[in-house]
Amino acid sequence: MTTSQATDPKPTAIQFGAGNIGRGFIGALLAHSGYRVVFADINEAVISALRDQGRYTVQVLDVERRSEEVTGVTGILSNGPEIVPAVAQASLITTAVGPNVLKIIAPTLARGIEERERAGAGDLNIIACENMVGASSFLKEQVESHLSEEGRRYADEHVGFPNSSVDRIVPPFSSENPLDVGVEAFYEWIVERPAFKGPVPDIEGMKLTDNLVAYVQRKLFTLNNGHAIAAYLGVRRGLDTIEASMNDPEIAAEVRAAMEQSGAALVRRYGFDPAEHAAYIDKIMGRFRNPHIRDEVLRVGREPLRKLGAADRIVGPARMAAEYGLPTDALQRGAAAALRYDNPADPQAAQLQTLIRERGIEAAVTEATGLEAGSDLHRGIVEAYRALGD
Questions:
Q1: Residue-wise pLDDT tens digits, 45-93
Q2: In whole angstroms, what is the distance from residue 25 CA to residue 188 CA?
Q3: At what angle do helices 102-119 and 149-158 cross, to 10 degrees?
Q4: What percentage of the chain's residues is helix, strand, coil (to nearest 5)?
Q5: Which of 63, 80, 131, 185 is the most buried (most CB within 10 A)?
């Protein structure tokens, strides 16, 4: 711990991931809520800049642009010697690293928790803010696998892993200061209240719920669903941004149809008010058309194998709708567009296209989506894929 840390009266939050989402969304909210935010990342240039400057600007890209200053921040390397002691002393830990990186940071968190246990430190909450259902629970499993028996007992009593749902478009952003970041005005951060250990922190913009699953799936099956389908269809039209895709009437109609089909399933499953959910879809359509957000389709469409997963944003709502006997044709076309996503620069896209070439589309659909060959959804996706052509 540095002298400044020892004398700083603010509670310390460690934000794993100092990218655009970490700085422009979660880290900014924590700083505005009175935390001293320590960003942890492997990007040495970003960490060095955070240490040197201790501040950055968030540009809110709305009809009327405005800026927010974020101060009182610093950075440490997530693979350096400072990170374990920092975890041991933190008041709160959040992540925005991407689902695939959670297992990579788990051993570090485990070492920090065991050092925390030896020091007799109090409660700690770790919130994984990722586009993944049950991200914090997954992180908990990964961390526990690296803990000793004594460490697991301590963690069970003192370390909470509340799941959360996060929603904010944070596109690539250019500025003279590489730390500055652009974000849309809308955001939503919903966290499950019962999973906290000790007092629930008072964080600006964090909403608490006792039924997080409903909100996680609402976001994943609506916002993320439409976002991905807009990207895959935009690539096929040679368009470069989500805004350009949504200004194409045919793509916009397909995106709305897919979100309405997923919405019908969500209303049946969780009892959302149909009118309120329709308004939620309208708001998302407007967000996708924000002219100040340059959200590239290749960025949004990356990692198609993950996004085609059985519980993820396209096949997940299709399976839910099918359970209730509801229409799924637009969702099937969305899955087909994802299967047609050919981007050699994206390892998962290249892997998917190799799978299709070597094993055929039927086997590829089964492997990518987990759907049983010959099922109605499987057959519909295969037919939609063939209908798209090359």
A1: 999 999 999 999 999 988 778 999 999 999 999 999 999 999 999 999 9
A2: 10
A3: 90
A4: 55, 15, 30
A5: 131
Q: Which two tokens stand for residue 220?
A: 């994943």
The model's pLDDT over 53-63, given as tens digits with 9 standing for 90+, comes to 999 999 998 87
Pairing of strands 188-192, 164-167: antiparallel
| Residues across the chain | 390
Helices of type H across the chain: 3-7, 20-21, 27-32, 44-53, 83-89, 102-119, 135-144, 149-158, 212-219, 225-236, 242-246, 249-270, 274-288, 297-300, 304-307, 315-323, 329-339, 347-359, 361-369, 376-388
- Residue 13 contacts residue 129 (beta carbons within 8 Å): no
The DSSP bridge pattern shows strands 188-192 and 124-128 to be unpaired
What is the rounded distance in angstroms from the CA atom of residue 62 to the CA atom of residue 43? 29
Q: Token digits for 14?
A: 């460690």
Q: What is the dihedral of CA 122, 125, 126, 129, to 10 degrees?
A: -160
The CA distance from 305 to 300, in Å, is: 13
Is the whole model's pTM more than 0.90, yes or no?
no
φ, ψ of residue 82 to 5 degrees: the values are -80, -20
CA–CA separation, 106 and 138 (whole Å): 10
